[in-house]
């Protein structure tokens, strides 16, 4: 009797889907719980909101130079800036042929913007009110649009850099993104334009959008995001390196409309060894193979 393993095989794509589905579901659950506490005016959370926002506003009113710097940073990191950055990235991806990846970025931007206003109008929470405000903003407060847009933008940019970066680059990108998101969110509370729970809700809403959009794209176009990431890797390589990599591969019969990135195999290809007898004037020695590609796209 032969024993066989009947357990299902979980592929990398399945793990990718599960991670993003879990992100969307967890953030949705936390957002719903936070929204319920805010709407019902739960005492401890309400006191925390009012005390922290009031203390930060008092400090801002007494330190005008610092407040002006925070205001400038908040304006630079505003929703228009963040969505403009993602729009430029989506356009660039479209022009180099990474159409699915471009649509993914554009969907994050548009759904994030639309979802933000649906939530704001649904809850209609008032912004903090002070007799001597240091900044002004209009519209409902919950969730914070600045917090939501900055979280989506930084997460998308880190996601695009992740496949090409080494460990040090990934650490730097994640740290920079996290500090940027935290600073923008804190600036809105410091200026008295949002409650702390508005900022928390903005981050949770961003997680819902990031996870849900990724799952939808993966289900609609299986494997397309991974192929576009390889295409971006190919397009962003230095030109000399691309020539060397192409010369190390055997020629393939491809049509004129084929994209070079589509010819990238999953595993490095190795040409037949060169014998010393095939090269006149060369001493006999062990056969040598061309240097294969490293997984990160750089030559050894």
Structural features:
about 300 residues, mainly alpha, about 65% helix, globular
Dominant shape: globular
* Helix count from the secondary structure assignment: 10
Summarize model confidence as the mean pLDDT: 79
Order of helices and strands: HHHHHHHHHH
Low-confidence stretches: 264-300
Q: How large, in whole angstroms, is the Cα Rg?
A: 26 Å
The secondary structure category is: mainly alpha
The strand count comes to 0
Percent range for β-strand residues: under 5%
Main beta sheet: strand number and arrangement? none
Helix content: 55-70%
- N/C terminus separation: 48 Å
Describe this structure in words.
- It contains ten helices and no strands.
- Helix content is 64%, strand content 0%.
- With 300 residues, it is mainly alpha-helical.
- It has helices at 12-40, 43-62, 64-76, 79-95, 99-123, 145-161, 167-190, 196-220, 224-235, 239-247.
Question: Which SSEs are present, and which pair or pack?
Answer:
Layout: H1 12-40, H2 43-62, H3 64-76, H4 79-95, H5 99-123, H6 145-161, H7 167-190, H8 196-220, H9 224-235, H10 239-247
């Amino acid at each position: 009797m032969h024993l066989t393993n009947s357990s299902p095989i979980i592929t990398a794509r399945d793990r990718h889907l599960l991670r993003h589905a879990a992100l969307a579901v967890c953030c949705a659950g936390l957002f719903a719980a936070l929204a319920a506490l805010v709407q019902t005016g739960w005492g401890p959370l309400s006191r925390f909101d009012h005390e922290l926002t009031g203390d930060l506003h008092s400090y801002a009113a007494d330190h005008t130079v610092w407040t002006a710097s925070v205001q400038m940073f908040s304006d630079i990191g505003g929703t228009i800036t963040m969505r403009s950055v993602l729009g430029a990235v989506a356009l660039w991806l479209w022009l180099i042929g990474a159409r699915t990846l471009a649509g993914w970025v554009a969907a994050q931007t548009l759904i994030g913007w639309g979802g933000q206003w649906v939530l704001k109008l649904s809850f209609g929470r008032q912004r903090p009110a002070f007799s001597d405000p240091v900044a002004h903003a209009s519209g409902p407060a919950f969730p914070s649009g600045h917090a939501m847009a900055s979280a989506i933008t930084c997460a998308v940019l880190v996601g695009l850099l992740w496949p090409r970066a080494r460990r040090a680059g990934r650490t730097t990108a994640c740290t920079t993104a996290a500090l940027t998101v935290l600073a923008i969110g804190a600036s809105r509370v410091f200026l008295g334009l949002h409650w702390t729970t508005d900022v928390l809700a903005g981050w949770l809403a961003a997680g819902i959008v990031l996870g849900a959009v990724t799952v939808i794209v993966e289900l609609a176009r299986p494997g397309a995001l991974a192929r576009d990431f390889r295409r971006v890797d190919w397009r962003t390589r230095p030109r000399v390196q691309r020539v060397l990599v192409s010369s190390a591969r055997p020629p393939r019969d491809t049509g004129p409309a084929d994209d070079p990135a589509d010819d990238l195999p999953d595993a490095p290809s190795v040409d037949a060894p060169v014998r010393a007898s095939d090269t006149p004037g060369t001493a006999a020695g062990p056969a040598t193979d061309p240097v294969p590609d490293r997984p990160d796209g750089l030559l050894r």
